[in-house]
Amino acid sequence: EPEVTQTPSHQVTQMGQEVILRCVPISNHLYFYWYRQILGQKVEFLVSFYNNEISEKSEIFDDQFSVERPDGSNFTLKIRSTKLEDSAMYFCASRPAGAGTGELFFGEGSRLTVL
Amino acid sequence: GDSVTQMEGPVTLSEEAFLTINCTYTATGYPSLFWYVQYPGEGLQLLLKATKADDKGSNKGFEATYRKETTSFHLEKGSVQVSDSAVYFCALSTSGGSYIPTFGRGTSLIVHP
Prior knowledge:
The complex is a heterodimer. By secondary structure, chain A is mainly beta. Chain A has strands at residues 5-7, 10-13, 19-24, 31-37, 43-50, 53-57, 65-68, 75-79, 88-95, 105-106, 110-114. Helix content of chain A is 0%, strand content 50%. In chain A, strands 2, 4, 5, 6, 9, 10 and 11 form a seven-stranded mixed sheet that branches. A four-stranded antiparallel sheet of chain A has the order 1-3-8-7, with no helix packed on it. The mean pLDDT of chain A is 92. The termini of chain B are far apart. In chain B, strands 2, 5, 6, 10, 11 and 12 form a six-stranded mixed sheet that branches. A four-stranded antiparallel sheet of chain B has the order 3-9-8-7, with no helix packed on it. A two-stranded antiparallel sheet of chain B has the order 1-4. By secondary structure, chain B is mainly β. In chain B, 0% of the residues lie in helices and 49% in strands. Chain B is globular, with a radius of gyration of 13 Å.
């Protein structure tokens, strides 16, 4: 069964460093998403991406963050200058065209620890 | 804005016990409601959904009924198994929110043999 894959599963970085989290969505999906979950808190929406551009973003997704689909398979989240409060689990998700009720397919998550 | 509130965890049960995980929501518009489950080491996956009032979603012995009058979507299972140990997330989506799901914080379920 096709699945969303994310790398790395865990990354430890120093404050101020740049981090890139990678995702390979399901191949025929057209909508891509990043969510994050700070330990013990809600799963929060960051950004959605469709047709090679951002379609929606939350207040969390400020200039520190960017997303890119550099080729036909990868979908990346870049955090330019990490802060302690960026420590969280980051989830990538995708869905096919036409699935308008909100069902997403998620990866296993990338845990980011900022020291 | 839209929000989902779930009961605090962890919920700890013995095998074959009855499970309820409470979920209430606030939404502008008419939401679709979901339960997602995350097993250890895996991503979130859809467990069940309901798209209109009084609909009952069901899967793997789990059920939840869309109650518009109480703005609730409580998850239930009559007899849990050790393999049901996971984190359960309640979520909603609306057309006004571009169908982007809004999640709760998740409720951890631990089932002992």
